[in-house]
Amino acid sequence: MAALAWGVRALAGGILLAAALLPGLVGQGAAGATTVILATTTSLQDSGLLDVLVPLFEKRSGHTVKSIAVGTGQALALASRGEADVVLAHAPALEKKYEAEGLLLRRRLVMANDFVLVGPEGDPAGIRGLASAIEAMKRIAAARARFVSRGDRSGTHALEIALWKEAGVEPRGPWYIESGQGMAQTLGIARERGAYTLADRATHVALRQRVAPPVLVEGDRRLLNLYSVLEVSPGAGPRVNAAGGRAFADFMLAPEAQAVIRAFGADRHGHPLFMPAAGKPEAEARP
Amino acid sequence: MSLFFQGALEALRLLATGDPEVWQITLLSLQISGSATLLSLVIGIPLGTLLALARFPGRALAVSLVNTGMGLPPVVVGLVVTILLWRGGALGFLEMLYTPPAMVLAQMVIAAPIVTGLTLAAVQQVPAQFRLQMLALGASRPQMVGALLREARLPMLAAVMAGFGGVISEVGASLMVGGNIRGSTRVLTTATVLETSKGSFDVAIALSVILLLLTFLVNWALTWVQQRTRG
Fold this sequence. Notes:
The complex is a heterodimer. Chain A is about 45% helix and about 20% strand. Chain A contains twelve helices and ten strands. Chain A has helices spanning about 1-30, 40-45, 50-60, 70-80, 90-100, 135-140, 155-165, 185-195, 200-205, 240-255, 255-265, 265-270; strands at about 35-40, 65-70, 85-90, 105-120, 145-150, 175-180, 195-200, 215, 225-230, 275. In chain A, helix 7 links the parallel strand 5 (about 145-150) and strand 6 (about 175-180). In chain A, helix 6 crosses helix 7 (about 155-165). Chain B starts with a helix and ends with a helix. Chain B has one domain: MetI-like fold. Chains A and B meet through helix 1, helix 2, strand 2 and helix 8 of A and helix 2, helix 5, helix 7 and helix 10 of B.
C-alpha cells in the first residue's frame, strides 16, 4: 500500500510542479494581438543594432516584438509564407522578386553600408587595393586561392554569387569552401584557413579585433549593402499582423530610428556601422 | 588557455554581481527544461511501465521505436515542432511559436522517449518473481505496479537525470522553436551560440560554465535524493 502511495505521490508531485512552473512561462509568452514577428538578417542582431531599436519601438508603440535573426534568404522565405509580419533584409534582387509576387509589400530603404573583400595578410591572389571587386574575384579564382563562402542563401551569399557570375567564374574545387554558417563564424574560418571572404561592414568592424582578416578591397559600387524593410501581405498566410508590421516599418523610417542608426557603433568602434537612408533612392544611398 | 580562464572568471563575475540578464537566462533555462522534464515523466513513467509489463502484439516494435526515440535528433524535433506551430501549420491557432511553452513542448518530445526507455529498462530489471510474489501475497494489480516502481526508483531517478541532461544541453530545437529572443526565449545554450557568433568568446565561455554548474547542481540534488532513498 505504501508502495502504491509512493508512486502516486511521485506522479502527483510531478504534475503539481509542472503546473506550478508552466503558468509563469505561458503568461510570459502569451501572444496578444500586438505581438509583431520581425524576421531579420543576422548582421543586425550580431552588430547589436536590434538590441537598441527593438526596445525603443516597443516603448513607443506598445507592441511586443519577437525578432527572429536568420539569414536573409530564410527571413524572406518565412515572411513570404506569412510566418512573420515584417522583414529586414539585404538582398535587393530577392526582395523585389517577393514584392512582385505580392507576398511582401512596400519595400523601403532603411539604411546602407558596404561589403568588403577580406583576406590573408600575405594576399596570395594579389587583390589588395583593387578598385574592381570583379577583378578581385577573377584573380582569386585564377590563383585558386582559398575562398570561404557563406553558402547559406544569406544576403552576403547572394551578392557573392552575383559577383562570381559577373566575373565569369564557376566557383568549384578544393579552394572554394562553403561554411554554411553566419558571418562571424565565416570570418573566423577565413582567418584560420588563410582564406578570402566577402563580409558586411558592420560584422567585420564588430569583429575586426578578434577574428576578422584585414580588408583588401573596398569602395566598388557593386559592394553597396542596402538594408530594406518589407511588410508582409495579409494574403501571405493566416494570422498576419499587418498593422503591427506596418507600425514597425514606419518606425524604422521615422527620424528617431534614423538618428539612432546614424549614431550606432560610433562610441564602440570609432565610426558608425550603418548610414541611415530613409527616403533616398537606391542610387543615392552611399556608405 | 587564457581564454578559458578569462571565461571562468567572467562567469564568476556575472554571477557574483547578479547580472540581471544572466540570471534571467539561467532561471529561464531551468524553468523550461525543468517543466519539460516533469511533463516527460508524466508521459514516460506510465508508458515505460506499461511497455515493461504488458504483453501485446507489436510490443517488440513499440519498444524498438522507444529505443530509437531515445536518440531522437533535437534538430529534427525542432523542425517538426516549428512547422506544426507555424501560423499556417496544424497547431498555428495556438500562436505558440517563439514562446517558452513552445520550447517546453519541443524539449518534452526529446525527453519523453528517454524517460520511457529508461523506465522500461528499470522496471524490467526487477525480477519477475517479485511481481509473482506480490500477487501471491494478495496485492492488487495497482499495488503490485506501485511496489514495482518503488523497487525500480533508483534507476528511474537516473532516467530523470538523463532526461533533464538531454534537454538542458540541447540547442538545435530551442533555437528553432524559441527563436532566441532576448528576455523571452533566450536560454543558456542559445545565448552561448549567439555570443560566439558575436565574437564575445569570454561571455560565451562564461555562459557555458554557468550551464555546466547548473547541470551539476541539479544532478547533485537528484543524486542526493537517489542515494538517500537507497535501501
